[in-house]
Amino acid sequence: MIGKGPEVTGDASDGRSIDAILRLAPVIPVLTLDRPEEAAALAELLVECGLPVLEVTLRTPVALDVIRAMQQVKGAVIGAGTVLGKPQLQAGADAGARFFVSPGTTDRLLEGAVELGLPFLPGVSSASDVIRGREAGLTHFKFFPAEASGGMDALKAIAEPFAEARFCPTGGINQANAASWLSLGKVLCVGGSWIVPRGEACDFSMIEEKARAASQLTRPAS
Predict the structure, then answer these.
(1) What are phi and psi of 121, to 5 degrees?
(2) In CATH, what number is assigned to the domain containing residue 130?
(3) Quick check: 1 pLDDT over 50?
(4) The predicted structure's pLDDT at residue 211
(5) 55 catalytic, yes or no?
(6) What is the CA radius of gyration of the chain?
(7) Hey, is 187 helix, strand or coil?
(8) How many structural domains comprise the chain?
(9) Distances 64 to 29, 54, 71, 103, 175 between C-alpha atoms, Å
(10) Is there a domain that residue 92 lies in?
(11) Whole-angstrom Cα distance, residue 130 to residue 186?
(12) C-beta atoms surrounding 4 within 10 Å
């Protein structure tokens, strides 16, 4: 059994809970970066544009280097994404990640997050996933893959029985549909890779334009 307690959704090292982190901006850029030398400058730009919460996916060999560089940027709240097990949780924490995001939910992963004691956002795509998370003491979830899992109608149906649950949909979210997702009452923010597409080098002018537009998206109070 996974022990229920405040650790999973409790305070990070800077005093922010997962709820507070998800409320910092309407969009969390999901970053898959191959060039760690650009990491700090990219984080500085995104923070300046009003997007301080950044998810660095652990999909590249340099992802932990990117986290180390970005977490030193003032105002940036850096998370480790695509966390698949306890070793990645620990590696992300050692690199300075202040929250963690996974594409799915398993008991072992939840146990690892409880042990670590930092904010954790597990992926869910069904009511059963949400129940598993709630049994571990969680109330905040990543709805993933958002569009492929049935879109907004699916999330509304899944969320309905869980009054306290809040969500960050990710997967298929873009500038064109982000506002519609944010209009859902239980959605605190959305995650997306459209702001910084994976590529050989960052186009900072294009990223700035997309980031400023994303930071201006609005959401209802919830």
Answers:
(1) -125, 95
(2) 3.20.20.70
(3) no
(4) 98
(5) yes
(6) 16
(7) strand
(8) 1
(9) 17, 13, 11, 18, 28
(10) yes
(11) 14
(12) 13
77-86 mean pLDDT:
97
Predicted confidence band at 200 (pLDDT cuts at 50, 70, 90)? low
Stretch 126-140: mean pLDDT: 96
Q: Say which of 7, 74, 142, 208 is annotated catalytic.
A: 142
Q: Which of 4, 44, 48, 55 is catalytic?
A: 55
User: Residues 48, 53, 57, 61: is their CA dihedral positive or negative?
Assistant: positive
Using CB atoms within 10 Å of the CB of residue 29, give its burial: 0 to 12 exposed, 13 to 18 middle, 19+ buried: buried
Percent of residues, the chain, with pLDDT higher than 70: 91
- Would 2 be classed as within a structural domain? no
Tens digit of each residue's pLDDT (9 = 90 or more) over 49-71: 999 999 999 999 999 999 999 99
Whether residue 39 lies inside any domain: the answer is yes
From residue 150, how far is each of 1, 108, 147, 154, 158 by CA, in Å?
31, 27, 6, 5, 10
Structure-token match 């605190």, residue found: 188
Average pLDDT over residues 102-130: 94
- Beta-carbon contacts of 72 under 8 Å, excluding residues fewer than 6 positions away, are 40, 96
103 vs 98: CA distance, rounded Å: 17
Domain range enclosing 62: 18-215
User: Residue length, the chain?
Assistant: 222
Does the residue 51 lie in any domain?
yes
